[in-house]
Amino acid sequence: MGVYKSLDQIKNSRRGRNFSVFTNKGLLFWVFVLAVLCFISLAAFALGMHFHVKLEHGMLPWREMREDFIVHDVPERPTKKPRRQRFFPCDVVFRDAVDLHSEPKDFMNFTQFSLGYMETEKKASHTDAHDPRFGGHQTLEEREQSFSAVNQTIHCGFLRGAAGLPSTGFDLKEEDKRYMSACRVVVSSCIFGSSDFLRRPTSRLISEYSKKNVCFVMFVDEGTLSTLSKEGSAPDDGGFVGLWKLVVVKNLPYTDTRKTGKVPKFLTHRLFPSSRYSIWLDSKLRLSTDPMLIIDHFLWQTGSEYAISNHYTRHCVWEEVLQNKRLNKYNHTAIDEQFSLYQSDGLTKFDPLDPNPSLPSYVPEGSFIVRAHTPMSNLFSCLWFNEVDRFTSRDQLSFAFTFLKLKRMNPDKPFHLNMFKDCERRSLVKLFHHREPSAPPPPRIV
């Protein structure tokens, strides 16, 4: 038994020594691991400080370098243009038989007065004999008086200079004048400065009655005539291309072709002195409805002497002014001068909540106009043209002022204007974009 006890004591003592040795080795191992980790941390900190100093001297971190590489070395995907808002036509219910239509009895029983047009300047005190102008030199006093619907002679374009001075512009051939003087119903348009292609009316939708009784006249300048001829729209011996009778205008009255385009647009009653009705359409439109149906629907059935559609998005002149400036449609100072005068003369903002508005909209879509050539309609056309002649060619800026002032100054003499929806206009015509302006020639390399 003593032997066994001694052996057990020896074994226990060996186990204790082995455990102590193992414990000492583990402790040393963990101390070593901690030391290595401290060393790595210190090294990383030192490297970070060094890298930070480098960054302060202009180096970019990897993420920024990667982004910079992506931005500058890889082409960006082209951003999609915002989709334009689309507008659609709406139904217009016409009567059927065009050739059976006749002017209603007493239709022309509107406000009656005698309207004459000034041919030469009367007052030498405000006229520069060396500066004859197509629209004349109307004073503000004459402008104010011209809004009265009374027997009068007013400025309305086509003024001649004194004897021996050149024409003020819009010169036509005598044979074209004879043709135009016989027209009773007119569809007219113009292309100046080769700004558009020739859009022929859709012949199959025009009645034989209208083809025989309506004059379709397209005014062009000589450069446009040459361009159209090269494009396959050369007129025949009678000057016709399809239904259009091309009338060449020489000596354009304005350097701004847009302003020149306002002459046939507003002064149809002067170019066609015997006409009773006229339809104006911009050259970007193709007529796809019979003109007699249009006159019947927008004038005869509504008892109106002037018809024009409202604008498809804007209804207040304030909005139109901002849009013209935003798109740089005209000199901003000229727009401000015109608009300031209108405000001082009583023009206020359009009120969409007014239950009895003077107009459905203060901004028209002036590319399509239907007129009966009554005294009041002719007066309004002259007044509107005079505003364009005096100020800017942006006729949408002067429409509401001209109408409201005419109405205000003649409370007992109504002007029967039909301002219809733009979607109706779109049902009468096919709309195209204007011709893209030709690019300037590349610079010559010497």
TrEMBL record:
InterPro entries: TOD1_MUCI70 (IPR006852), TOD1_MUCI70_glycTrfase_dom (IPR048354). Residues 115-434 form the TOD1/MUCI70 glycosyltransferase-like domain. The chain crosses the membrane at residues 27-53. The keyword Membrane applies. Keywords: Membrane, Transmembrane, Transmembrane helix. This is TOD1/MUCI70 glycosyltransferase-like domain-containing protein. It comes from Capsicum annuum.
